[in-house]
User: What shape does this take?
Amino acid sequence: MKLLSHPVVPPLVPVFLAMMTGILAASASFLQNPVLMVVISSLLLVFSLAGTAGSQRAVAGICLAAGIWSGYQSHQIHQPQIPSGHISRFYNQQGVVVTGKIVSFSRHYPHKIQATVACQSIRDKDAHGTPRIVPARGKIYLNIYGNEAPALGFHDTVRFSGPVRPIRNFGNPGAFDYQTFLKRQGIFGAVHTGGTRVQRVSDTPLPLWVRGVQQIEVTRNRFYEFVMTTPAPLDAAHILAALTTGIKHSLPAGLRDQYARAGTSHLLAISGLHMGILCLIFFFFFFRLLSMFHGLLVSAAARKTAGILTLIPLFVFAFFSGFSPSTQRAFIMVTIFMISFLGERQTHPVNTLAGAGVLILLADPAALFSISFQLSFTAVLFIVLGMGVVHRSGGIRIRFVPKFLVSICVLTLLAGVGTFPLIAGYFNLVSLVQVPANLVLVPVIGFVCLPLGLLSLAAWPLFPALAGLLLTLAGDLAALCTRYIQWLTDLPFAWSWLPALTFIDLAAVYTALSACFCAAYFKKTAPAAAAVIILLAGGYSIHLISPPGAPDRLTVTVLDVGQGNAAVIQTIEGKKILVDGGGFTGGSGFDVGRNVVAPFLWKQGIRALDAVILTHPDTDHMNGLVFILENFTVRELVKNTDTSPHESFDRIMAACRRRQIPVFVPDCEDRLRQWDRTRLEFFQCDSVVPGLDANNNSLVFRLDLDQFSMLFPGDIMRKREQLLAGVPEKQLAARILLAPHHGSRTSSTSVFLDRIEPEAVIVSCGFNNPYRFPHPDVLARYMEKNLAVFRTDLHGAVTITSSGKSYAVATHYPEN
Assistant: This one.
């Protein structure tokens, strides 16, 4: 390595940057042709080597080789070659039986068990209906429902029946790309089945290492149950379980939100911080133990031996906690930094960080796209650079305050400053109490609760009473921390939701932060850095204070929320209205409001809604509104007279009372919402009579802008349609119809369609939904009346724009 001993920058930094460039280039749509990528890489190699010599040429060659290799690996991940026996070739086939091997620890949810299965074979029927067994490849999620599932563990061979469903995204602008997220993990589908349709297949005797891993999984699950049954506040038990076992999928959403608003959500998942803290604790323990031997202490072997021994319990803990990708990356980072610390030669800390990045990307190029990877490396980079500035300026010299406490404050501040743009960009959230929250929680949870939890784990097999006592103590401290951040986040302006940040926004913020570091580290660059900061701040301030121009057209977006309804209306007067919020039924823990509706609103720059309309309190229209009403500024809730026994309805009404949101129930005397050119007209007075069921009681209203109109009929069916057909014809007519009841057979009657006379109809429904919506009979009626049909299950979000005369319809996915 003498050749690379004195480069201008730490030698592994350009290698790390080259790998990132290759991975990003291969994932870009215009570079997904491997031939084109090789040609471009070759040209880059020629230009990079031209004019360089000696060590610079060696660095350039290594960088280009690393970039090309990483790009090739990234291309294989994003554009994999699908062999003939790949599991994706068996999507949606009925009556298939899959055999495969479990390659993950099982995840236990309240209503299901989930495991990752590497497929081995599949039993189906050939073109002549003859049963056959063919080899299969690829990984899928196995979701088991019910209480009859057999006990399954890592490396077990299982056989189960059920159609293999493809991974699908919600087809909305700016939506999270879940399909690509799982593809990067090699997962290409999912099977949802009952416990009685899953069996563990007897296999040859398992290797010793597999039996050891299975025992670790059993111990992990049992200790998790022990933690959750220990007398302690429930939220505290969830925190301790996440810290000690890595099982965090059962954390309550409210607890996650509270920690996120305080900027401390990283404490709920095993990360580089936890690994670093444990590394310090184990190293100090082993070093003090080995220092008792004079020979080891004098020869300096105590330090090196302690460092090596420290990695053993760290690896065991990483494996015990599930060895998730984020935990693997944290272990690699800590290992690299430990090796660097124990080395005889001084190593640039940025070079050490780049070395960790190179190893991680070599093992998994897709890690670059992981949020935890980006946050971890950004935090450590800002800490390293910031502490460099501190030491260059003479170090920490504050009297009457312990240096350790000041160092913790500085580290917390640097990590917070470095990661807040990413957190704001990914989660649309900014916390202004991040520093005071972390100053308390990091020492208490990291240096006290986590060690107490691990001591409890060590004592649990032989001394369960002692283990319970340790957990109770740790739980009381965790509960105090939770109450502390609750108090912090209740302060005015402690946190805020943000509209979606663009890449330009993030680039501008990090440019300004980089200018600050340059000005602090290189005094001569201070004037230029100040000019950059003033320019960016001035431009952004002008952007903020400039009033947005009035929209020149009405926009209605019918969102893809699966089997449910949600639509966003943006009027020509600048009013924002949300109609229903979608929602899953059957005990699903997926929050459509949080994960689908809110991200779309943030993407549109919407943080306040002039009205939220709940057509009727069914879960597939109502559940998604809970998050919206609890977290957005809402000026009015419009609903019908119905109530509901569901918890979601209670939370909606509680949010209205707590946030003083007025509730408007349309009736005969008050049935209009009128702005300049846009109005909403409700038809409750004309068509609702006593005795109608919940669906038929849905709010029905028409949106009008000059010559354009669109009818929103909720989930009404035949009886309500007949009543509506009796209102004056011109009132009911609309150019666009949102299909009643998702296109069910009992709706969209001919007489109703004749009175509306729509030109197009939009069906909001879930892909391959069990209700067969839209029903073939209804589609036949639409076709008979020559209506243009748009479906959220096939086309994704459907957007209608109108200036008041003509209108245009656009879909998120191109029409087939």
In short: The chain has 28 helices and 28 strands.
